[in-house]
Amino acid sequence: MKAPPNVTKGTLTHRGGASFSQVSFMYNPSTVEVTGGANWVKHQIPFIHHPRLQYAGGNGRQVSFDLHLLADDPLAGKVTDIDKMIDTWESLTYPDAGAETLANREPARMTLALGENGIAMNCVLSDITVSYRLSRADGSTRYAVLSVRFEEDAVRAKSMTDRRNRK
């Protein structure tokens, strides 16, 4: 049985040589936070009361939200291994394998797309917090909440509004 048409999905697509190519997830958070900012250098000038501010570059944007993972999906009529999904999400915070030393490894670069016309950005997964809410008698997870934060990839940054502006 297919999911109903009003179910919105998010995707996380890897842009390098990782063990996965794409992770899809149900996307219906109550809040999505997008933060950003600028760096300003203060120059003190003699005999002037206020420092002169000089723009020194922007901070990459950050996107954070909660994902609710439910093992029993009555719409699809299947049971999902939540613990395996959590392991996959946690592995995305580690650098890609391939370099000889950990210091030379690149972060796992991804493209995050939320919904059909929502946020789209090149990013890295910087933080993840797992809250285990319900467990089965055998100890496996039945319901968990992942709090995730993505940072815009400064190497290959892309406007978050690009997808909205396409027609």
Please describe the topology of this protein.
Blueprint lengths: L8 E6 L7 E5 L6 E11 L8 E19 L1 E2 L4 E2 L2 H10 L18 E5 L5 E16 L5 E12 L9 H4 L2
Protein architecture, described:
- By secondary structure, the protein is mainly beta.
- It is built from two helices and nine strands; from the N terminus they run ββββββαβββα.
- The chain has a seven-stranded antiparallel β-sheet with strand order 2-1-7-8-9-4-3. A two-stranded antiparallel ribbon has the order 5-6.
- A hairpin with a 7-residue loop joins β1 (9-14) and β2.
- 15% of the residues are buried.
Instruction: Report the order of strands and helices.
Output: EEEEEEHEEEH
Shape: elongated
Mean pLDDT equals: 78
| Amount of helix | under 10%
CATH topology: Elongation Factor Tu (Ef-tu), domain 3
The CATH architecture category equals Beta Barrel
Please provide a brief summary of the model.
By secondary structure, this protein is mainly beta. The protein has one domain: Elongation Factor Tu (Ef-tu), domain 3, CATH 2.40.30.200. The protein is built from two helices and nine strands.
Summary keywords:
167 residues, two-stranded antiparallel sheet, single chain, mainly beta, Elongation Factor Tu (Ef-tu), domain 3
